Amino acid sequence: MDRKLQDHWSDLIRTLFKPDADLRVRDNEDHYEAVVSWKLGTDPSRPSKRSKRIRIIVPWETVDDYQNKSELQRKNDDEKLFQFIKANLENFEPNHNNPIEMGPPEVKWIAGSGVLNS
Fold this sequence. Notes:
It contains 4 helices and 4 strands.
C-alpha cells in the first residue's frame, strides 16, 4: 500500500482521538490497518490501564478503488471514512474488566466498499 495514503488516512483518523491516544499503523500489503488505544485513567489500582483496542481496517479492494478515483471523489471518501469512525466512536465503550495478564480486548471496524462507496 502507498505510504502517502497510509499517512493521509492516519492523519485523518488521528483528529478523532485525544492527542495522547496511541495510533499504530500495521504494515500490510493488502489493506490499511490502524490500531488505536489510550490510557483510561479510570482505575486507581491500574493507572496505566489502556482502553479497548480499536482496529480500523480498509480492505485492499476498497484501497484500490480509492486510489483509482478523482481527487474530488477521494475527498468525499475521506469524509465518509471520518464519519464512519466518528459514528462508531459515539457508541464505543473504551472501559473493560480484563485482567492485566490478558491485555485489553479488541474491536474491529471495517470500512469496506459499503462505507466508502455508498
